[in-house]
Amino acid sequence: MFFKMKKIFLILSFIASAFLANGQNLVENNGFEEFLEESNGQSYMSNVKHWYNANQYENTALFGTPDHMYSAKREDGARRNFKYFQPYKGKATAGLITYMQRVRDYREYISIKLTESLKIGNTYEVSMYVTNGNHSAFGNIGTNGLGVLLTDVPVKQKAYEPIYEQPQYFFEDVFYSTDWQKVTFTIKADKSYRYLTIGNFLKDYNLKKRYYNFDVDPQSYFFIDEVSVIETDGKDPEPEEEPIVQTEEPPAEEESMLEGRDVNIQNRFEIRGTEVLIKVWDKREVDGDIISLQFNGEWILKEYSLKKGKKKIKIKYDPNGDNILVFFAHSLGKEPPNTAAISLQSGKHKRVMSIRSDLKYCGAIQLVK
Questions:
Q1: Residue 20: in which H helix or E strand, if any?
Q2: pLDDT score, position 38
Q3: Is 204 helix (H, G, I), strand (E, B) or coil?
Q4: Which of 193, 228, 281, 352 is in the most buried spot, having the most CB atoms within 10 Å?
């Protein structure tokens, strides 16, 4: 899946190193290798020279805490954090949460003061390497929204809320990669920008999400390395034929069945045996909501008009499957979005929940044992 630039020309390609040789990088410690002390694998951004946490208040029980991630050999030869990520270069990276399922609108940001202000009217190339890591405990959700903000004054975060600024660049589509990818865009400075901030500037209701793995605390997490801001001659470099970003797409058959819509897992249900009894109905006034249900890639209910009466369906847990129950909305009724009430029962364990879907994403429930 490819992501697009908004108003700014975004280049998704590797750039020949010779092109950058003529400019000076305005980002000090661009690989996060200069720090106060070696950590056991993870520390706060206060450990990193020149960079800092955009949250300077730390006045609540929960506040944004971006990470300094360290991966070096221990005395026994093992590598700290090696199973989660390998730095693009050196021993360290930055890491930050761009979405957290259990805390609404939770965001983390890293900032730096550039060595000099951008010159108004001049063109600059901004780039960084990003990865979501190797199916780590730090993430496993692909999202849009990661962005770069250039400002003439520092921006500050009060707790963990999104910073309400319009970034010059952000991922408009879902991004997820276990390999390092270089992202580059160019900007013609319209202000004397001196500060650079990286993070997700969108609110949760604007996010697109796709789940690639599942853990006890689902998040979208990005490792960041080799950040640069370099003045150029204003000419756009030639992109290579092969794009950089290679995201992990669902199988072509599933994509076709769901018409390319993102799957948003909104709840999980723990089952006690192998069978689950499903009951589904219209949560609000019956207004023409039409849904289909898909389980493990197969339709178990097709184009059903939700009613006040409860439709009953039985499904079986597959130990080798994803066991994701997907709600596909064919129509949104008179009062969008399409909201269905559902009850799940396995043995004596029962839960009632709501699922929301629209014409861009499918709400879903994952069955777990």
A1: helix 17-20
A2: 80
A3: helix
A4: 193
Which has the higher per-residue pLDDT, 209 or 22?
Answer: 209
292-317 tens-digit pLDDT: 999 988 899 998 888 888 899 999 99
The pLDDT score that the predictor gives to residue 245 is 39
User: Which residues have C-beta within 8 Å of that of residue 256, sequence separation ≥ 6?
Assistant: none
Measure the CA–CA gap between 244 and 248, rounded to whole angstroms: 13
Q: How far apart are CA 338 and CA 359, in angstroms?
A: 9
- Cα-based distances in Å from 189 to 46, 156, 268: 29, 22, 47
Kindly state whether residues 50 and 172 are assigned to the same domain.
yes
Q: Which two tokens stand for residue 38?
A: 């070696």
Which of 196, 231, 266 is the C-terminal boundary of a domain?
Answer: 231
Backbone angles phi, psi at 335, to 5 degrees: -130, 85
Kindly state whether residue 5 falls inside one of the protein's structural domains.
no
The answer as to whether 239 is a domain residue is no
Which domain range does residue 305 map to? Answer: 252-368
Mean pLDDT of 97-123: 94
Q: How far is CA 95 from CA 44, 65, 70, 89, 246, in A?
A: 10, 9, 10, 14, 21
For residues 69 and 123, membership in a common domain is answered with yes
